[in-house]
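Homework-ish question, so no full write-ups if that breaks the rules, but can someone show me the predicted structure for this set?
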Amino acid sequence: MSDTPVTRAEACVIACAEVFSDIGEVMVSPFGTIPALGARLAKLTFSPDLVLTDGEAALMVGAPPLGTKPGELTLEAAMTYRNVFSVVWSGRRTMIMMASQIDRYGNQNISAVGDPDRPKAQLVGCRGAPGNSVNHPTSYWVPDHSVRSFVPAVDVVCGVGYERAAAAGPGATRFHQIPRVVSNLGTFDFETPEHTMRLRSVHPGVSVDQVVEATGFELVIPDQVPETRAPTDAERQLIATLDPRGLRDREVAP
Amino acid sequence: MADKTTTVDEILAELSPGMTLGIGGWGSRRKPMAFIRALCRSSIEDLTVVAYGGPDVGLLCATGKVSRVITGFVTLDSIALDPHWRAARQAGTVALTEFDEGMVYLGLQAAAWRVPFLPSRAGLGADVLERNPELKTVTSPYPDGGVDGVELTAVPALHLDVAVVHANRADTEGNAQFLGPDPFFDDLFLGAADRRFVTAERVLGPGQLTGEGPMASISVNRLMTDGVAETPGGAHFTACPPDYGRDEAFQKEYAATAKDPEAWAGFKARYLDVDEDRYQAAVRERAEATP
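A: Not a homework solution, just the prediction itself:
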């Protein structure tokens, strides 16, 4: 395996897995194929205490491959939606949500594109994003980085960004944190004086210019932009085992 | 003791235009679809619907029953977006009051507990508050993490005129039982409503639910209900475990009709403009015709 080049999807899995490092015994809720692989990889390697759900109404033991049949999972406790809200509001959770749009402050939109009263495109709705983003660390995954997803201002603020949280006051900022944004081009954080989005790393084969061109607002670009950490051979083996059907390459082309 | 058995048609007679209707279940899971189908056939319009939205919302929008939906999402689960809901929203025919999904929970809980609101962080900083000026914040009378005067969202009580939920089992007294992995918030939909109805796969005699599953699965008791109606297959095509799973092929057909007026007319004639017995027969024929 070490003689084949690292794929973009593998780099994205590593970037997502690292969102779940050093966070202890918390429930992780990864949306999207690659975040789900990242969570499972993290649990099998550097974050064994992570608590994963079966995607229905229970916590599951271990980190089985994607697509494992429900009857073949080993479950350990109930996690009904009512339980989920208790976890969210207790803060013992971290997650990667998807973002149809995201802006420089980390405001996220999954509700609608266009005028919200008569949208051009009605999307799923804000779901738990408003509550998640002000109750526990919430990162975002954007598999199609472009000027249509990385926008100057989102059409509906679902997940709350740094400037909106600050304006809403200490009730919103107390537990608000956006550790990371991961896209198919690179990783991003808000570790800047104004909490505006900074390019943290580019995935293998991606240039800084490419990221800038695909972003609809001004990113903070450090003098040196490292490459996203490459998976080890052992990690690549695990990713292949966790995703035997290669779903990751369908979400992000190799 | 009063016998609370009723029928879907009698439940429907409780509804009038302009009312607020709460619908149990979550996404495309354990929705009271037999009731929804009957509502689609009725002349009732201009409803406000509170739901964790699935094809119930899509069908009611497609048949013009709803003017406003209060929800955090509408999804078919295995199909991310309900195209009928999208079409109604994009045509501007149905208004959306968007809540964080946890706010729906708290709003129902507040109504069930007869308090005007419950506090939450959810909504702070988000367009949920910005775009719904009727939603207000409240200043905490107690310090929050050592800070005085913190503003929190005051999630308003979501009062319902009528609530309908679908259970696996119920009894003639009005107790109801959920045998699947998640009871969702059906008890709170009932608690938040003036008139409260359960449809169920089977309605048994008094005291018989304890033989069907553990006591904790009988989480709706008769203090919480006004009527129960037996509707076998009444959640089809949504999931109703352990009685049956989601009918994915049927759901795909439902979703595909949104972009094709002719297909929608055919779907409506075959599955919505008929009574429940003929619906269930048509579903069986469909399954038999599909290899």
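Now go work out the reasoning yourself. Hint: The mean pLDDT of chain B is 97.
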